Amino acid sequence: MQKKQRALEIFRRLEKRYPAPEPALDWKTPWELLVATVLSAQCTDARVNLVTPVFFERWPSIPDVAAADVAEIEEVVRSTGFFRNKARNLKNAAIRVVEEYNGEVPRTMQDLITLPGVARKTANIVLSNAFGIHEGIAVDTHVTRLSFRLGLTTFTDQVRIEKDLMALYPREAWGDINHFLVYFGREVCPARKPRCPECELNDICPKKGVK
To answer: What CA–CA distance (Å, rounded) separates 48 from 39?
Structure first.
């Protein structure tokens, strides 16, 4: 099976498994999704979902975060890890959104990645899920692992993986393929002990790097 054909068959099967994909992070506004995604770095979504209600009760608006004491933000986000960097980035991102974007989360990749703590992965998640804009594919550890195992890329660098995936899938599928690979990576194909016998992709998976 050719790579393009396999990629589309993977999408078809995972779409059947996950008919209504959406982020595992809890959010209501683009800013809430941005904050949650920043906090999710090196942290579980479940932990982030415990922290964000406290965060947004304390600082309901973007100007509230911009004006907050960074030490107080640190205390609220401490359990997500790397809390000093995350707190500083969130405060400075809020300041930039207020000062440069009239208090509205920007809607382009070019503008989003100017915000402290926001790189392509976070920007792609916000654009795709909050605005329905597909400028790329968010590549996290699950997408990295599964893209390689499934033979969709030969690279481990996330920028190169994103380019490979973008070439394999139509633009309107870019948001969904991220969700599919993240969910499937957690449920069936984890880093250790992938459950190949029960995997619905087993017959078309080249199992790159799987012992």
So the answer is: 6
